[in-house]
Amino acid sequence: MAGGFSVSGSGTEFEAKITPIVIISCIMAATGGLMFGYDVGISGGVTSMDDFLREFFPSVLKKKHEDKESNYCKYDNQGLQLFTSSLYLAGLTATFFASYTTRRLGRRLTMLIAGVFFIIGVIFNGAAQNLAMLIVGRILLGCGAVPLFLSEIAPTRIRGGLNILFQLNVTIGILFASLVNYGTAKIHPWGWRLSLSLAGIPAALLTLGALFVVDTPNSLIERGKLEEGKAVLRKIRGTDNVEPEFNEIVEASRVAQEVKHPFRNLLQRRNRPQLVIAVLLQIFQQFTGINAIMFYAPVLFNTLGFKSDASLYSAVITGAVNVLSTLVSVYSVDRVGRRMLLLEAGVQMFLSQVAIAVVLGIKVTDRSDNLGHAWAILVVVMVCTFVASFAWSWGPLGWLIPSETFPLETRSAGQSVTVCVNLLFTFVIAQAFLSMLCHLKYAIFAFFSAWVVVMSFFVLFFLPETKNVPIEEMTERVWKQHWYWKRFMDDDNHHVVPNGGKSNGNGTYNNGATV
Ligand code: BGC
């Protein structure tokens, strides 16, 4: 397979190849992204379909076709928002269980269980007779975040790009969902059932795939299955010469197991930079306003006077821009670096949001029904510009940066916190956006643009560049060099010193713990 290369871990070079098994594992893990994306993208289109509204939200349907109601408020309904948001609230809860099952049963079995939940959720949704069934279905869908799997199996050199593969699959899932909605909207009265049921395809793929996928060596070794771990390592690295890397993982896992309270450990002063950055990146990612578009694009375009068909069509366009721009990130993240992408995107997101707010502010009065053709196109173009910049920055990097900054001893706990915070704020946006749109009107976009300014300044001053820095060398090369974060690096007393403190001479210890 693709030529061999060396993997740098804690200053040691390991022999490694991208073997078919690495690729298959990553594809399978990325299917999780596809499932997630499909569920992100499907709800907005479905909620804009009259057949669906007639069945579950007749009052919204009435408002939609009434002239009396303010355009901005047509879809302002808590139940409707709950249909979208419940998935993320459930996902949040599931993350705690997933982190437990991952530790006890491994990632593979966890993926299998997640797949089964998904399939039952899909059945509930596709067959829903009332709102309760819809919500229960969405809750069951709310499991399945697998980025940790990806970042651990990935050799350091391509870690960035591979992690973004997860995000790429999320965007493909969203696009796929918009395309499906565009088609099913024409099937009356059950097209929406088809939309919701098709989520079963990636779910079935994941479940099947989990049967074939390998557990990561780290995961096996952490659970004491040393021989199995070594065998998998040989397979995924494509060489028998894995002893040094194997020993390092064993040692690192021993050290990790000595950490009795991973969450308490996460709160220690020296872990502050990673924690603060991970938490803030998730909040910021959601407050870019991206999911206002991803969840509600068809509803939003409908609000602006687009006809049903045009709304769904426009959602397909933004979905396609999302996928293509994520590819830009895959290509550039390890070349131009994280900070550059985030800062450029900050400017672009700000300008496009302000432009949207201005056009809507001037052109869409409460009762006027239409934007006018040219203005409508301008809004769609601005939405696309916004989505593009998000897709090559905050979208993938919101996930990548936390996964590459936590050291092994806090990675699992850190990753759970990251996912939880993300899902919590995704839930908040899903539950609040349509109500906020009703109250703030066009100014909702000014609201998000103000957040973009705040997060860009955060990046400018507080986010160090992590391009090409192995996880194990973060402390030395990143945190200790940073004008602000270095102050948290001074209490060496709590550092775990493995191997009786034998240094390998370059500031790092053999297991990768940096002192
Ligand atoms: C975010 C999702 C969002 C998606 C859009 C992801 O990185 O976490 O909330 O829907 O990007 O592409």
TrEMBL record:
GO terms for MF: monosaccharide transmembrane transporter activity; symporter activity
Pfam families per the UniProt record, alphabetical: Sugar_tr
Domain Major facilitator superfamily (MFS) profile: 25-467
Transmembrane segments: 21-38, 79-97, 109-125, 131-150, 162-182, 194-214, 275-299, 311-333, 340-362, 374-395, 416-436, 442-463
Keywords of the record: Membrane, Sugar transport, Symport, Transmembrane, Transmembrane helix, Transport
Topology of this chain in the membrane: Multi-pass membrane protein
Highest rank taxon of the organism: Eukaryota
InterPro entries noted in UniProt: MFS_dom, MFS_STP/MST-like_plant, MFS_sugar_transport-like, MFS_trans_sf, STP/PLT_plant, Sugar/inositol_transpt, Sugar_transporter_CS
SUPFAM superfamilies: MFS general substrate transporter
Classification via NCBIfam families: SP
Family: Belongs to the major facilitator superfamily. Sugar transporter (TC 2.A.1.1) family.
Descriptive protein name: Major facilitator superfamily (MFS) profile domain-containing protein
Organism this protein belongs to: Leersia perrieri
